[in-house]
Design brief:
Number of strands: 10
Shape: globular
Bound molecules: ligand C2E, magnesium ion
GO cellular component, one term: membrane
Distance between the termini: 95 Å
Helix content: 40-55%
Largest sheet: 10 strands, mixed
GO biological process, one term: signal transduction
Number of helices: 11
Strand content: 15-25%
Order of helices and strands: HEEEHHEHEHEHEHHEHEEHH
Protein name: Sensor domain-containing diguanylate cyclase
Length: about 290
């Protein structure tokens, strides 16, 4: 009887497993369709300077699923990565970002768009070539875009990654190290790769200004970055006390719900996150 129970148990588990595998397969298929039928949308979150003016808008991917509603990236990016669909998705994101950056520029807004790369994007033979081809096809100057790369992309810190990053930077795309401080070898990455700036992870910002530990870490990071000539963005700024501390310590760029949530491009204008351009306010004189 014990043996039978064991067998039933095994059957139960394998049914559970195959149900999970089946859900996963369906999710993958739905994501394939999402790509083909353009169900993805980009929301944009402002990075502001010390005067509170937006300078960079970070593109953050959402899936507008007919069945599931608006799905956040944490729920589907891992699946895109496992299935290899991430490579095509990144190209889509980058192309949309090019078009949006051009449109804002044509409307007179001085904004760049930051695009997040996945570690898996570096597995393709020619990531740099594919992104530079899109810039050319969309007739978009590289200076309107920048790239955010998480430390996990650099774990495979080999020649290939090094060459890819150098080529992108040489083409005029600024490179930012995302979630700085949460990886295994943040300082090694700064030493080895040609970054233009870092984004301090919101984990460190969250403790400001009350935690002595966070204060020391953030001050240390800002001092180091200044010595290295690196730009700094503080992520996850949620209140004025954090913002005041960061401004007082000369953090050049701030991002977080305190300033703006990620919004669709039109909403950024409607909500006033992107101010109306002076050119559009001037009276027309013939
Ligand atoms: P990330 O690049 O570090 O983006 C910051 C995340 O923090 C975003 O979540 C943003 O909405 C959220 N956030 C911003 N300000 C605050 C704040 O003040 N408080 C808190 N608690 N959170 C804040 P989101 O949009 O869910 O994106 C999560 C992650 O998904 C991103 O982290 C990025 O790693 C990834 N991701 C998003 N879009 C893309 C994409 O197009 N491609 C790739 N490869 N990854 C993406
Ligand atoms: Mg990012
Ligand atoms: Mg980040
Ligand atoms: Mg983060």
């Amino acid at each position: 009887a014990a043996k039978d129970a064991g067998r039933n148990c095994t059957r139960f588990f394998s049914q559970e497993l195959s149900a999970a595998a089946e859900r996963r397969r369906q999710l993958e298929q739905a994501l394939r369709r999402a790509l083909d039928e353009e169900q993805f949308v980009l929301h944009y979150q402002a990075q502001v300077n010390a005067a509170g003016e937006p300078e960079v808008m970070e593109a953050l991917l959402r899936w507008n699923s007919p069945e599931r509603g608006l799905v956040p990236p944490g729920e589907f990016i891992p699946v895109l990565e496992d299935s290899g669909l991430i490579i095509e998705t990144t190209r889509w994101v980058f192309r949309q970002a090019c078009r949006q950056a051009r449109q804002w520029r044509e409307q007179g807004h001085q904004l760049r768009i930051a695009v997040n790369l996945s570690p898996l994007d570096f597995r393709q033979a020619d990531l740099a070539g594919s992104l530079l081809a899109i810039l050319a096809e969309e007739d978009t100057p590289a200076e309107l875009l920048e790239l955010e790369i998480t430390e996990s992309a650099l774990l495979e810190a080999d020649e290939h990654v090094q060459q890819t990053l150098t080529r992108l930077k040489t083409a005029g795309l600024p490179l930012l190290l995302d979630d700085f401080g949460t990886g295994y070898a943040s300082l090694t990455y700064l030493q080895r790769f040609p970054f233009d700036g870092i984004k301090i992870d919101r984990e460190f910002v969250a403790g400001l200004p009350d935690s002595e530990h966070s204060v020391a870490l953030v001050r240390g990071i800002l001092t180091m970055a200044a010595h290295l000539g690196l730009h700094v963005v503080a992520e996850g700024v949620e209140n004025e006390r954090q913002a005041a501390f960061l401004r007082l310590n000369n953090c050049p760029s701030l991002q977080g719900y305190h300033y703006a949530r990620p919004l669709a491009a039109e909403e950024c204008l409607l909500a006033g996150v992107i101010p109306p351009t002076p050119a559009l306010l001037l009276p027309l004189d013939g």
